[in-house]
Each structure stands twice: as C-alpha cells, then as structure tokens.
Design goal:
The protein has 258 residues and is of the alpha/beta class. The protein has helices at residues 61-71, 92-99, 111-123, 163-172, 194-203, 226-229, 240-248; strands at 8-12, 17-19, 31-34, 40-43, 82-85, 103-108, 130-134, 151-155, 181-185, 206-212, 234-237. The longest helix is centred in the middle third of the chain and has 13 residues, at 111-123.
C-alpha cells in the first residue's frame, strides 16, 4: 500500500478553494465492508471487464482518508451544503458526506462503477442525500454548468497524466462568486501529475494549501478514529517552492505511513 498523504488544498483569496490527501490498495475480488464511519461499501473486481481495468470499483485508501477527515469535523458544518464529487468510484466519500447532512451529486463515467455506486447508495439508505450523474471529464456536454456547488471533492483521481483532465472538470464547477472550496485527496507517487495540477491551480489564481500536523508533515490516515488521525491538523498555504516539494517529496505524519 502506498502512504496516505495530504496532497493539497487550494483556495483563492476571495473565491474558490481546493483541499486534500490520499493512498491506495487493490483487491482482485468483490468484497463488502463497513468503514469506521459507519458507511457500508461494496467493491467489485477491477477485472470485471475485458476491455480495461476499472479502478473505480475498488475502495482506495485516499477515499477512506478523505471521508475520515470530513467525519473528524473537517470542512464542517455539512448539513444543507451542496457538494459535487468528481470520480466518485465506490462512493465512500459521497456517502460519508451524505450521512453528515450534505446534498451530494456523485459523478463518474464508467457504467459498471455507476451501477456499483447506485447499489451502495441504496444499501446505506441515502437516496435522498446522494444523487448520481454520469460526468466524463473529456466531454464538456456532461458537465453540470447550470448547477451551483459549495464544495467539490475528489479522491485518488490524479494518475496517468490526468492533471489537465481533472483541472478542466474542476474549474468548470468552482464558482468564483460563491467562494467554492475543493478538497483533493491524493497518494504519493513518483510519477504523479500532482505538480502539474498545482501549477494549473496556482496559475488560475487559487491558493494551494496542504493539511499538516503540528510538525509540518502531511497529515492523514485511512485507519483509526477520525479525531485521533486528524488531531492538531490544519491547512497551511504552500509557496511555489512548497508546492513542488509537496508533489515530489513525501514527508508523512505518524498516522500517514500505511
């Protein structure tokens, strides 16, 4: 498993924001589990199609870490807030936010993942809080431009040079007049496109923050009580040099070494 790491948070001086963490884990067979936060999640094998691997059908640690952050009180209050999740996968983040009272639109573009997501929503009795939409980052016609969101979230969606794809979808849904905040969870990877994503965000005038512990290390974790994992954590603005270091060199806190 890769370490779960606070990747970044971005925020504009008087507008949007983007905040984050992450990790990863691959299972080859369908499983069911209940998270520490009480969310029931079914997973499917990523080999469910002979066309390509369906990574979204697996429950990754980044999603668990981001869910745990929200459960710890991060970003609160959630009741009544409008949230968009990009690349929702199994839906663990969307479902956790739905349980916390948010109105969530969970999006993905893989047919198999959409079906799995719908089953997980039904299993958690959250149909009134979590809606599903097929959103393809490469197809602007699927974007929800007529909707307004208070928060955008995404977990472990930066890989295989997808920084520009993610940025295009993210920017399209961040309302500069409504101080939209975005939280991004991402694992440390030596070939991560995170650095390029940071450059795109900063170039658009957003502030980039990282969630850090008291020693200035990336804060986060996929296991343990939320209040313990994130005790003493706070978002710290990253300079241009700091963004490069955060993307390319890992410096993890004690809960962030899984």
């Amino acid at each position: 498993a890769m370490a779960c790491r606070a990747a970044a948070a971005t925020r504009r001086r008087a507008a949007p924001v983007l905040r984050g963490f992450g990790p990863l884990r691959l299972q080859a067979r369908a499983t069911c589990r209940t998270t520490d936060e009480g969310v029931f999640v079914s997973e499917d094998s990523p080999y469910s199609t002979d066309q390509h691997l369906v990574y979204g059908s697996v429950l990754w640690d980044s999603g668990l870490a981001l869910s745990k952050f929200f459960a710890s009180g991060g970003g609160a209050p959630w009741r009544g807030r409008r949230v968009l999740e990009l690349g929702t996968g199994t839906g663990v983040v969307a479902l956790t936010l739905g349980k916390l009272g948010a109105a969530v639109v969970a999006t993905d573009c893989e047919p198999g993942v959409i079906g799995l997501l719908e089953r997980n929503i039904e299993a958690n009795a959250l149909a009134s809080s979590v809606a599903v939409h097929c959103l393809d980052w490469g197809d602007r016609a699927t974007y929800l431009r007529d909707r307004r969101f208070d928060v955008v979230v995404a977990a472990d969606v930066l890989y295989s040079r997808r920084d520009r794809w993610l940025w295009r979808a993210l920017e399209a849904h961040m309302d500069r007049d409504r101080d939209t905040v975005a939280y991004l969870a991402s694992p440390y990877r030596q070939d991560s496109p995170l650095s390029g994503f940071f450059d795109l965000a900063a170039g658009a005038g957003l502030r980039v923050d990282r969630l850090e512990d008291g020693a200035g290390r990336a804060s986060g974790g996929a296991q343990g009580r939320p209040e313990d994992v994130y005790a003493g954590s706070r978002f710290v603005e990253l300079s241009a040099e700091g963004r490069g270091a955060a993307a390319l060199r890992a410096d993890f806190g004690e809960h962030n070494a899984q």
